[in-house]
Amino acid sequence: DVQLQASGGGLVQAGGSLRLSCAASGFTFDDYGIGWFRQAPGKEREGVSCISSGGGRTYYADSVKGRFTISSDNAKNTVYLQMNTLKPEDTAVYYCAAYLECWVGDYRDYVGREFPFPRDYWGQGTLVTVSS
Q1: Which of 6, 37, 96, 106 sits 20 to 30 Å CA-CA off 113?
Q2: Are 48 and 61 in contact (CB under 8 A)?
Q3: What are the residues whose beta carbons fall under 8 Å from the beta carbon of 118, sequence distance 6 or more?
Q4: pLDDT at residue 24, rounded to an integer
Q5: What is the 3-state secondary structure (H, E, C) of 35-52?
Q6: Nearest Cα to 119, choosing from 104, 88, 97?
Q7: What is the separation, in whole angstroms, between the first and last Cα of the chain?
Q8: How many Å apart are CA 94 and CA 16, to the nearest integer?
Q9: pLDDT for 87-112, tens place per residue?
């Protein structure tokens, strides 16, 4: 079975840091880009970051560029999202996903991409709460 297990969320004060982890199994890790999307209460889903298959390219939404860093440990089939200088607007449930093609920002900007993203794999999210 495909599993994408996200962990590392929690409560942090504005300006603080968290590191999310995504442990993947049940599919060929190197065939997919691995990324994170988030959903805040009352807001549409937003692609936060993605690392391409093989780790050669990374992508970030404008809202997190310069603050978040995505990395991959292919030996462990694990992807990390280091989140620094967190802001209250980063509060959301963060989902780890395996994409045939990386995307960030508004998924509706991508032709053929519709929620629940049937061509991708994604799992249970982890809640990040940033207090002001």
Answers
A1: 6
A2: yes
A3: none
A4: 95
A5: EEEEECCCCCCEEEEEEC
A6: 97
A7: 40
A8: 17
A9: 999 999 999 999 999 999 999 999 88
Record the tokens describing residue 44, joined without a space. 């549409």
The C-alpha atoms of residue 65 and residue 54 are separated, in whole angstroms, by 21
* pLDDT for res 3: 94
Of the candidates 46, 127, 49, 130, the one whose C-alpha atom is nearest the C-alpha of residue 87 is 130
Q: What pLDDT, on a 0 to 100 scale, did the predictor assign at position 111?
A: 87
Distance CA 113, CA 101 (A): 10
What per-residue confidence (pLDDT) applies to 119?
A: 87
Both structure tokens of 46: 């937003």
Q: Which residues of 5-22 are buried (b: 16+ CB within 10 A; e: fewer)?
A: ebebbeebeeeeebebbb
